[in-house]
Amino acid sequence: MNEPLPLCDALTDLKPIEVLFLQQLPEPSHELVESPRCELQHEHTGVHISLAQASGLDSWWLVWAPGNAQLTARGQNMDRRLHKMDDCPAAEGGDDGDECLLPAGHTGAHSFAMQSSGPRVPSAAARKKMLHALRESLDEDERAELEEMESLLASEGAPLPLITRNEALVVTTLLGQVALDDWLMEDLVLRIVERMDTRMQVLAS
Asked: pTM value?
């Protein structure tokens, strides 16, 4: 098996206006990467590109010029822009292989021949869509355990003085980490964290 080709090492930071635009897109597929890396092959020619967001069937790419070069878009010169591009149709080894994740007409090698730019964290909306499939994959005992926890959280229950404020802060932080790593538990975890945060705010007032 051939060694994957290296990626371009160019980095940039999203500008506030770009973040605002991307946050307003419907059906975002992943969380924003604040410092995106160019996803083209190392030492490519022309502009740098990085997938900024996939929204529904649309892919929005951040395009920026190397050095002090300028882009021309709609008669205006600029150093960068967000641009909607079609997907590259190439697939490794034919139609059943890994698809190229770059836009159509990109320079250099296809993504399946290069190093990975790293996984993107699915957006909250995308994770909710995945949740149904995750639940369906549970066996009977696992599903029963999850449903029991959901049932317990459906009612407040009697408060118990078992934890200090500092311990509660640590617990909420740890639970937040669990929510990031375990999408199946995410809703349960976030509900517990919200309740604990609310009670701590009441005690502090």
From this structure: 0.69
